[in-house]
């Protein structure tokens, strides 16, 4: 089992920045890919960014160039630096981890609200 705990959400004005963190505990050595998803009211959960154990990254087109995902394997933590935030980035952001058996784990979510 893997437990994910997110932090760093909040309220920010458009154009501002926030940094999300997600710490993994439990059987964290089994984790391959970590990432961030988000879900806005009335919409489906969508991929924001993912990063592999080796550091390969992938981003949603809507955040490319504004968000940066990084990972500290020694701390079992993944980060999402969000710059140039827009009101449409408002959502609950969820941390995700996938182990080598392709099991998914989710954090409880952290609210990000961007005011115009």
Walk me through what this model shows.
The protein has no helices and eleven strands. The protein is mainly beta and 116 residues long. Strands 2, 4, 5, 6, 9, 10 and 11 form a seven-stranded mixed β-sheet that branches. It has a four-stranded antiparallel β-sheet with strand order 1-3-8-7, with no helix packed on it. A hairpin with a 4-residue loop joins strand 9 and strand 10. The protein is globular, with a radius of gyration of 13 Å. The termini are far apart.
Please sum up the structure shown:
With 116 residues, the protein is mainly β. It contains no helices and 11 strands.
The low-pLDDT segments are none
Tally the helices.
0
Largest sheet: 7 strands, mixed
Oligomer: single chain
Percent strand equals over 45%
The topology string of helices and strands comes to EEEEEEEEEEE
Helical amount: under 10%
End-to-end span in angstroms?
40 Å
Cα-atom radius of gyration = 13 Å
β-strand number: 11
Overall residue-averaged pLDDT value: 96
The general outline is globular
Task: Provide the structure class.
Answer: mainly beta
């Amino acid at each position: 089992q893997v437990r994910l705990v997110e932090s760093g959400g909040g309220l920010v004005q458009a154009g501002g920045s926030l940094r999300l963190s997600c710490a993994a505990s439990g059987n964290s050595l089994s984790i391959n890919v970590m990432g961030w998803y988000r879900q806005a009211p009335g919409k489906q959960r969508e991929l924001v960014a993912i990063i592999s154990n080796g550091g390969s990254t992938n981003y949603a087109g809507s955040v490319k160039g504004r968000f940066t995902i990084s990972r500290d394997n020694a701390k079992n933590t993944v980060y999402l630096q969000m710059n140039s935030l827009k009101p449409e980035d408002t959502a609950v952001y969820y941390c995700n981890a996938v182990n080598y058996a392709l099991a998914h784990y989710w954090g409880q979510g952290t609210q990000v609200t961007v005011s115009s």
